[in-house]
Design goal:
The protein has 119 residues and is mainly α. It has 2 domains: 74 residues; 31 residues, no CATH class. It contains 5 helices and 2 strands; from the N terminus they run H-H-H-H-E-E-H. Strands 1-2 form a two-stranded antiparallel ribbon. Helix 3 packs antiparallel against helix 4. The longest helix has 21 residues. The radius of gyration is 22 Å and the shape is rod-shaped.
Length: 119
């Protein structure tokens, strides 16, 4: 993209509207993948720098980035990775972490799951 940016700057002294970054940010927002949304907006902002032909394109990316960052802060308290969740074992009441995935949450910690079932 740096080569394309250099060509834009040579020809127009500005970077024209690049719809790709906005569209990808929108797609990631719809999927609620806030980290990916931040990555795409940052990439677009890095490409535009201070040379955007349309200032509203930069403002849109900034608004989307700030919203995604706010969503990441809401979903994960400070210092905790947004992709890790902390669960409590229903048998021994100890807490354990796991990577957040779709589907059911395990009721037992890894130690209790691997222990023989004593009834």
């Amino acid at each position: 993209m740096e080569t394309i940016r250099a060509a834009f700057m040579t020809k127009w002294d500005k970077v024209p509207l690049l719809e790709t970054y906005r569209q990808m940010a929108i797609r990631q927002q719809k999927k609620k993948d806030w980290a990916a949304c931040v990555r795409w907006t940052e990439r677009g902002l890095q490409l535009y720098r201070n040379d955007a032909a349309r200032e509203e394109a930069v403002e849109d990316l900034l608004r989307r980035r700030n919203r995604a960052l706010a969503k990441l802060e809401v979903t994960a308290p400070a210092g905790i990775d947004a992709r890790v969740e902390i669960l409590v074992c229903s048998r021994c009441a100890s807490s354990f972490e796991r990577v957040r995935v779709r589907g059911r949450k395990p009721a037992l910690c890894p130690e209790c799951r691997s222990a023989p079932n004593v009834n």
